[in-house]
Amino acid sequence: MIDTTIDVINKLGLHARASGKLIEVTTRFRSSIQIGKGDKLVDAKNIMSLLMLGAGKGTTLRLVIDGADEDKALEEIQTLFAAKFYEAE
To answer: What is the pTM of this model?
Structure first.
């Protein structure tokens, strides 16, 4: 199990388009992927749950991944966040 944090660095935060891109990544993995603030974790494969987080720029999110492909899932999620969800800023 991986339990780490990730920072939201894109200009608009985890808005609809960014959440959609995160869903595209998370749904490719069999591992359980949860994201949230502190102890309030939500399913990172559920768009409504992601939007309800209200994670703006500068938010540090907790990321918990558990499963056979957890390392690859973490790598791809970190790449997406580091690339600012491939949005022009």
So the answer is: 0.94
